[in-house]
């Protein structure tokens, strides 16, 4: 009987538990549903930010890829304005997502610490949020689990209802777009108006010519009709009119191509022109963005006041929403008179992870964003320690805000040597060797690819390897990873260069590109010895895809823009001489010079090269400026 009684009591308890579970099931499931909204919200945030980032990048590329003679000032201003608006919208979305997350901090709290930490990661953005719910003065070290990111906060923050947010964007939307110089705008506008005016003038002349010829043919047609009314002669007149129109169209097309050629040449010349004045910076600690480059994206560090928390109530989540939205916590406060100790607001120690695909050839510097001056500066940062193997950087920060890592833009300039070698028809390999690295870029038709990177003579793996992209896209991607071998118009102020006249340099690059399918070109030590009005390169015919031989038989060529010649000296000669090689002649172009000794197969390869390929090779040569920066 006792056993049956125990069983009855257990059954009653079980039924009571089931009834209680059923009674609160709806409430619990509803609360769980509300809590799990963080998952779709996180995914929505990823999609929105990804879309906005892509739009911003497309506009940036559009500005860079469109030839200068096709861009008007108002179009540039419009695109730049759209980029700024999209950046503001992107930042607003991050703030809204952070506020929603912090409202639920108490329900997402960690069981061990009692505080909340959350990490939302996407391809180009990582969001770290920590909420101080317990306000424990002993809990002064904030570290996000499964990462090395850490904050050492002072006592006053450890006892305050605050939240810390680190938003790491792998791109840099903080640095303002570099303004187009007045001289560049003037040159671009001149070229644009010149092309349009000349084309319109040409069209008017052709139209006038066509009308006159048409009238003449019409008169002849009338006289013929009066004399003879034969259908065959009417047909002859129509054929003649058609011929006149075709001839006029051909003349118009020829004129347009000529003017376009002049505009392209002018635009290419802008790529290698040196600025006349060094940029001026007013602040002592302001970062010179012509001398330094931001790398690894931007780390947006913020401290917020913890918003009112969500409270579950009968299947509902009750939350007070502040009208003013997410509020920043000012640290240190503007006035510190109410605090007794002098060091009540010490700098906050921050440890950040450095982006994996970024290469620093020297220890990076840390810069903070000055929101008022709209520039990066280096004050307010101390105790910087970079651990290269762990890829961690630690520093102390007086006040929170966006920070970034910077490196000397010209750390890989000037170059030690270079080589342009054909791999096949419409396919070449460009190798640039610097003090720290060797970079190989393949160029195929209208695309480029990072083939390999060596750092300190050791193979270095990069996420860019094997990815074909347009020349401008590859240049931007290499710059963003720290592999910058692309001088700007201001680079000559920071690098000792082997100055060459722009017209000579551009003509050389264009003709090297024309010959690149069948000839290998390389750096010559004698290029430094000749004057700025001449360039010297070494050349050899290269028709197969085999690896280059150790000591190839190079020929030295000297080019002045309107005269090309083979030199008597070679790379191993003891002294420099401009003497002409025996049994050779002067030519006006490099193309006609190599015809004297090139094989039929080589010349056939040159003639079969595609225009897109030649243009891509030329653009890469113009962008690296190998003849001036080696």
From TrEMBL:
Signal peptide: none annotated. Pfam families: Casc1_C (PF12366), Casc1_N (PF15927). Residues 374-542 form the CASC1 C-terminal domain. Residues 51-138 form the IC97/Casc1 N-terminal domain. Belongs to the DNAI7 family. This is Dynein axonemal intermediate chain 7. It comes from Acinonyx jubatus (Cheetah). The lineage of its organism: Eukaryota, Metazoa, Chordata, Craniata, Vertebrata.
């Amino acid at each position: 009987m006792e056993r049956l009684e125990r069983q009855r009591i257990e059954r009653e308890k079980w039924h009571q538990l089931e009834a209680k579970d059923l009674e609160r099931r709806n409430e619990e499931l509803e609360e769980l549903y509300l809590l799990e909204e963080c998952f779709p919200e996180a995914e929505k945030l990823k999609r929105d930010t990804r879309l906005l980032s892509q739009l911003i990048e497309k506009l940036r590329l559009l500005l860079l890829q469109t030839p200068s003679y096709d861009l008007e000032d108002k179009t540039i201003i419009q695109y730049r304005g759209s980029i700024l608006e999209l950046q503001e919208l992107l930042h607003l979305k991050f703030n809204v997502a952070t506020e929603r997350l912090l409202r639920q901090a108490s329900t997402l709290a960690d069981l061990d610490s009692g505080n909340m930490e959350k990490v939302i990661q996407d391809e180009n953005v990582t969001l770290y949020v920590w909420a101080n719910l317990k306000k424990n003065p002993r809990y002064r070290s904030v570290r996000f689990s499964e990462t090395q990111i850490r904050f050492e906060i002072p006592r006053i923050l450890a006892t305050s209802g605050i939240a810390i947010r680190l938003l790491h964007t792998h791109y840099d939307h903080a640095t303002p777009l570099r303004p187009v110089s007045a001289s560049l705008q003037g040159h671009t506008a001149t070229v644009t108006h010149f092309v349009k005016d000349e084309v319109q003038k040409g069209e008017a002349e052709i139209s006038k010519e066509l009308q006159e010829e048409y009238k003449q043919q019409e008169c002849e047609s009338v006289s013929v009709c009066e004399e003879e009314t034969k259908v065959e002669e009417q047909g002859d007149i129509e054929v003649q009119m058609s011929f006149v129109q075709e001839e006029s169209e051909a003349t118009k097309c020829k004129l347009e191509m000529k003017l376009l050629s002049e505009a392209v040449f002018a635009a290419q010349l802008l790529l290698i022109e040196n600025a006349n004045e060094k940029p001026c910076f007013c602040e002592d600690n302001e970062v010179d963005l012509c001398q330094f480059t931001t790398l690894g994206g931007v780390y947006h560090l913020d401290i917020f006041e913890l918003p009112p928390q969500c409270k579950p109530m009968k299947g509902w989540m009750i939350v007070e929403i502040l009208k003013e939205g997410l509020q920043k916590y000012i640290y240190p406060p503007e006035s510190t008179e109410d605090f007794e100790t002098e060091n009540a607001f010490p700098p906050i120690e921050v440890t950040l992870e450095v982006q994996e695909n970024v290469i620093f050839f020297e220890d990076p510097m840390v810069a903070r964003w000055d929101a008022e001056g709209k520039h990066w500066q280096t004050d307010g940062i101390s105790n910087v320690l970079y651990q290269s193997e762990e890829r961690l950087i630690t520093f102390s920060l007086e006040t929170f805000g966006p920070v970034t890592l910077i490196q000397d833009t010209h750390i890989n300039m000037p170059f030690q040597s270079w080589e342009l070698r054909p791999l096949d028809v419409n396919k070449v390999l460009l190798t640039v060797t610097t003090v720290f690295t060797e970079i190989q870029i393949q160029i195929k038709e209208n695309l480029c690819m990072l083939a390999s990177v060596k750092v300190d003579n050791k193979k270095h793996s990069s996420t860019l390897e094997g990815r074909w992209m347009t020349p401008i896209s590859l240049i931007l991607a290499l710059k963003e990873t720290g592999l910058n071998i692309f001088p700007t118009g201001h680079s000559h102020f920071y690098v000792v260069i082997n100055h060459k006249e722009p017209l000579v340099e551009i003509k050389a690059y264009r003709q090297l590109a024309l010959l690149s399918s069948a000839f290998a070109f390389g750096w010559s030590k004698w290029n430094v010895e000749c004057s700025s009005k001449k360039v010297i390169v070494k050349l050899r015919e290269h028709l197969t895809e085999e690896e280059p031989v150790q000591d190839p038989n190079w020929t030295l060529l000297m080019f002045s823009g309107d005269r090309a010649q083979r030199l008597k000296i070679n790379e191993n000669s003891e002294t420099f001489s401009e003497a002409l090689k025996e049994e050779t002649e002067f030519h006006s172009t490099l193309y006609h010079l190599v015809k004297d000794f090139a094989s039929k197969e080589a010349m056939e390869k040159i003639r079969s090269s595609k225009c897109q390929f030649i243009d891509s090779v030329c653009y890469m040569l113009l962008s690296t400026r190998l003849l001036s920066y080696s």
